[in-house]
Amino acid sequence: MRHFFSHRRSDPRWPGQDGRCEARRFHRDFGDGEHGGRSPFGRHGHHGRGGRGGRFFESGDLRLVLLRLIAERPRHGYELMEEIETRLGGAYRPSPGTIYPTLTLLEELGQIAVSATEGAKKLYAVTPEGERVLAGQKAEADALFARMEAAGGEAPAAGKLQILRAMHNLKLALRLRLGRGNLSEEQLRRIVEAIDATATRIERE
């Protein structure tokens, strides 16, 4: 399956050894959204003809999103990042440097509280004050989540990013195993057969 794996590192369609090439292309294509995440959507969630560097969340939107997600059920910060990414089809993921300060703010406002801890993880739950805020901003929250749902269906990069992640995992696994050395001929044969078989299945899809 030489043609499947033989690509030059200088080819811009493929990531380099550490994926930096693709990361640069993704940053160029989609830009940075507000709050340190990436979004392919223009202002108010639409694809702008003037470029893709617009932000998805307006000021205060992320706080309302987190509050509503926590009201659905108690969640950890990392789980909230994953949930937003899932609802947006993988096209936007807020950074930890945004999520956790926003959670701290919500806690200081008395709208959420830590209900349990698992090691360093804090499980956040909504408070009566948070429920009051959500009730008063229900229309805004409904519109925001409808926009997120629509945007998730448009996410153009989600499938590509999943493939790139899988490719990177394979490359990393091979690099780590080959780095340990001491591969027998039988082990080497099994690895080659597994890669070739996977390549064949992909080509037949």
TrEMBL record:
Residues 41-52 have a biased composition (Basic residues). InterPro entries: Tscrpt_reg_PadR_N, WH-like_DNA-bd_sf, WH_DNA-bd_sf. Residues 66-135 form the Transcription regulator PadR N-terminal domain. Residues 1-20, 27-53 are annotated as: Disordered. Residues 27-37 have a biased composition (Basic and acidic residues). It holds the Pfam family PadR. This is Transcriptional regulator. It comes from Roseomonas mucosa.
